[in-house]
Design goal:
The protein is of the alpha+beta class and about 80 residues long. Helix content is about 30%, strand content about 45%. The chain has helices at about 10-25, 65-75, and strands at about 30-35, 40-50, 55-65. The N and C termini lie far apart (about 35 Å). About 10% of the residues are buried.
Length: about 80
């Protein structure tokens, strides 16, 4: 059973805006955002430049509620 006082309710509009900004900074494409207990998982393909050209690299970032709060303060 989930303890209501422990579960934090995300404000989706601001949360998604903050996650979108992070995805842009990391040059992520084909993203997947999954809400999990304790935060959000962000997955995507990052476009990286090497001397051989451009490559897509899979990246996964787990963002806690505290991480999300910090990202939202930076908006």
């Amino acid at each position: 059973m989930v303890n209501p006082s422990a579960a934090k309710r995300l404000r989706y509009e601001k949360t998604l805006q903050a996650i979108g900004r992070l995805a842009e900074k990391q040059r992520l494409r084909e993203i997947c955002i999954l809400e999990v207990e304790g935060g959000v998982v962000l997955q995507g393909q990052a476009l990286v430049t090497t001397r051989d050209g451009y490559h897509l690299v899979s990246k996964t970032k787990v963002l806690s509620h505290e991480d999300l709060a910090q990202l939202m303060r930076e908006l």
